[in-house]
Write a structure and sequence with these properties.
This is Phosphopeptide-binding protein. By secondary structure, the protein is α/β, with parallel strands linked by helices. The chain has helices spanning about 110-120, 135-145, 165-175, 190-200, 220-230, 240-255, 260-270; strands spanning about 1-5, 10-15, 20, 30-35, 40-45, 55, 60, 65, 70-75, 75-80, 85-90, 100-105, 125-130, 150-155, 180-185, 205. The longest helix has 15 residues, at about 240-255. It starts with a strand and ends in a 7-residue tail after the last helix.
Length: about 280
């Protein structure tokens, strides 16, 4: 139990300078903050963390009001907020079935950032690992901590420890019900032979690299890739408005020179996306 008595803000993460320090390698160094306003209202704020904050089963995108009994997940640690100004650490729990869980193993870069933003726009919980350590260990540790398989596993095509073919063989043998995709960082076109190779090794598909600039222009192409993942989850429809906002956020993040007139037009009339 950590009383929130001194100051008006409390940072949560695995960094030693945080108010609440988590021994959780899935959390960021400065992952989130609880902020108290003059009105005595408390808000949970994501500090740009890699794996996001899940409040009562939903990933938050903006500062969100906390109520007594609210539970939020940071990394793999569940915290509970109480109005007596106490936050108590709870054992890790399985995420709600309403929010499917995606594990991405891909080195840091624009591609994984785009995938993370797109998947979250559709209400999915996303955990990202860089693949710097053995990918088998990442998957095994993840399942051990979460007490469940990820709903979708997305694997970078250039993984080396082990290489992608050996990793897919291991996944198929060890977790036969685990649904996986290969995702590319470089190639915007995947040949039929590559896609066939992926399915032979147990993956659902091999997805090409996403456009890393002019995302609003390629909205239909991005949506088509996202729909492949949603289809594997049994979902047939995109949340188009949320995807449009996500594309705009990504466009802003990758292009600071986007004309203000274009931004205004985009906000007032988002691009049409495939059904």
């Amino acid at each position: 139990m950590v009383p929130l008595t001194q100051g008006n803000s409390w940072v949560i993460g695995r960094g030693k300078d945080c108010t609440i320090v988590l021994a959780d390698r899935w959390s960021s160094r400065r992952h989130a903050m609880v902020q108290r306003l003059d009105t005595e209202d408390y808000y949970l704020i994501d500090l740009g963390s890699r794996n996001g904050c899940v409040l009562n089963g939903q990933t938050i995108q903006v500062p969100t009001l906390l109520k007594t009994g609210d539970r939020f997940i940071i990394g793999k640690t569940t915290l509970e907020f109480r109005t007596d100004e106490a936050v108590s650490t709870m054992p890790p729990e399985t995420p709600t079935a309403l929010q499917p869980l995606v594990l991405i193993i891909q080195p840091p870069g624009i591609q994984v950032q785009i995938w993370q933003e797109l998947l979250r726009s559709q209400g999915l919980q996303v955990v990202v690992e860089s693949g710097k350590i053995n990918s088998r260990r990442i998957i095994s540790d993840f399942i051990s901590v979460m007490h469940r398989n990820p709903d979708i596993l997305m694997l970078d095509s250039q993984l080396e420890t082990p290489d992608i073919s050996k990793l897919l063989e291991w996944v198929k043998a060890t977790y036969p019900k685990l649904r996986s995709f290969i995702i590319d960082r470089y190639d915007n076109h995947i040949s039929p032979m590559q896609r066939q190779w992926a399915t032979q090794y147990g993956a659902i598909d091999w997805l090409p690299a996403l456009p890393d600039d002019n995302l609003t222009m390629y909205g239909a192409e991005v949506a088509a890739q996202l729909k492949r993942v949603l289809k594997a989850l049994g979902r047939s429809n995109l949340e188009q408005e949320k995807l449009a906002v996500s594309l705009l956020n990504l466009q802003l993040a990758t292009n600071d020179d986007l004309p203000s007139q274009l931004l205004s037009e985009y906000i007032n009339q988002p691009p049409s996306l495939p059904q």
